[in-house]
């Protein structure tokens, strides 16, 4: 049911067609943008390149400018991943806690970049961190999004053994986003990893079931099961391609669409 009451707690969730009647030229009213932590490194080996943050802030500002509500989940792969720490000998749950804290650091850095560009934003964390960031609360998040604030959902799901892809899909479903937009270092989903295989073939569109059956590594299988069960579309695109984010949000063909098929 479209939200016709203007009650911020009634989900946005309008299909693309119904939102076209509003002032925004966007195909979507509310998106959940998943940013790769690794991509924040830019040309560096580790950490955060402020130039990447500033460029992303600019692109996010363009979306806010056309009336799109933006929730963001940032990965932590530029700092720590629990599985890698575990391979190096650390307890897995401790490593996952470090990975989740890394996502909070990335979210704080992105908020800083957004605010320097005069884009109102808030960081919420799945792990309580009084005095640093607000604890995640779904109803507050929806209110912030409805009022036009960019909301950065940090600390993943708050639980070990998950990833920020799953967190992004979970938050998208919870706040009733229209789509998960996964910004990554490749320009879509291929039949095999395009970084490792020069002959990989790109999909324009892919069903959830095909993505699961073929175990295509661009997104973890838990996340794909979640979006499939809640019929949440996902678009995977290249975050290094200028204007690609704006283009896909206004209905352009960018990357790969994963949906019911
Ligand atoms: N079939 C596939 N199609 C496209 N990319 C693939 C595929 N299989 C593996 N990949 C790899 O998945 C990567 C995309 O994941 P991404 O960089 O977003 O990492 P992540 O683990 O989600 O993010 P983070 O860096 O935040 O941990 C691409 O860089 C690509 O090399
Ligand atoms: O719900 C979650 C989300 C993440 N983690 C840990 O954080 C790192 C970084 O996230 P990426 O998705 O890999 O960028 C991840 O490797 C996990 O160790 C988590 O435990 N729970």
TrEMBL record:
Q: Where does ATP bind?
A: 34-37, 77, 81, 184, 190, 193
Localization annotation: Cytoplasm
- GO molecular function list: UMP kinase activity
Q: Which UniProt keywords apply?
A: ATP-binding, Cytoplasm, Kinase, Nucleotide-binding, Pyrimidine biosynthesis, Transferase
Entries under HAMAP family matching the protein? PyrH_B
Reactions that this protein is recorded to catalyse: UMP + ATP = UDP + ADP
Principal location listed in the UniProt entry: cytoplasm
Boundaries of every Aspartate/glutamate/uridylate kinase domain copy = 30-238
Check the record and name the InterPro entries matching this protein.
AceGlu_kinase-like_sf (IPR036393), Asp/Glu/Uridylate_kinase (IPR001048), Uridylate_kinase (IPR011817), Uridylate_kinase_bac (IPR015963)
EC number(s) in its UniProt entry? 2.7.4.22
The task this protein performs is described as: Catalyzes the reversible phosphorylation of UMP to UDP.
Quote the protein name from its UniProt record: Uridylate kinase
What pathway does this protein act in?
Pyrimidine metabolism; CTP biosynthesis via de novo pathway; UDP from UMP (UMPK route): step 1/1
Signal peptide span per the entry? Answer: none
């Amino acid at each position: 049911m479209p939200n016709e009451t203007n009650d911020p707690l009634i989900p946005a969730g309008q299909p693309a067609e119904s939102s076209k009647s509003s002032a925004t030229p966007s195909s979507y009213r509310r998106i959940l943008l998943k940013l790769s932590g690794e991509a924040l490194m830019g040309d560096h080996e580790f950490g955060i390149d402020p130039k990447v943050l500033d460029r992303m802030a600019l692109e996010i500002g363009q979306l806010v400018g056309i009336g799109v509500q933006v929730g963001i989940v940032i990965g932590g792969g530029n700092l720590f991943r629990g599985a890698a720490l575990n391979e190096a000998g650390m307890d897995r749950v401790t490593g996952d806690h470090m990975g989740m804290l890394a996502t909070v650091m990335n979210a704080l850095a992105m908020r800083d970049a957004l605010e320097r560009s005069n884009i109102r934003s808030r960081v919420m964390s799945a792990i309580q961190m009084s005095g640093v960031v607000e604890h995640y609360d779904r109803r507050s998040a929806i209110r912030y999004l409805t009022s036009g604030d960019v909301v950065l959902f940090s600390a993943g799901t708050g639980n070990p053994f998950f990833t920020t892809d799953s967190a992004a899909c979970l938050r998208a479903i919870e706040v009733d986003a229209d789509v998960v937009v996964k910004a990554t270092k490749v320009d879509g989903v291929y039949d095999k990893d395009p970084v490792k295989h020069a002959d990989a073939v790109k999909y324009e569109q892919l069903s959830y079931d095909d993505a699961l059956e073929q175990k295509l590594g661009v997104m973890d299988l838990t996340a794909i099961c979640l979006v499939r069960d809640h019929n949440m579309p996902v678009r995977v695109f290249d975050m290094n391609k200028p204007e690609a984010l704006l283009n896909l949000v206004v209905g352009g063909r960018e990357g790969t669409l994963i949906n019911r098929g």
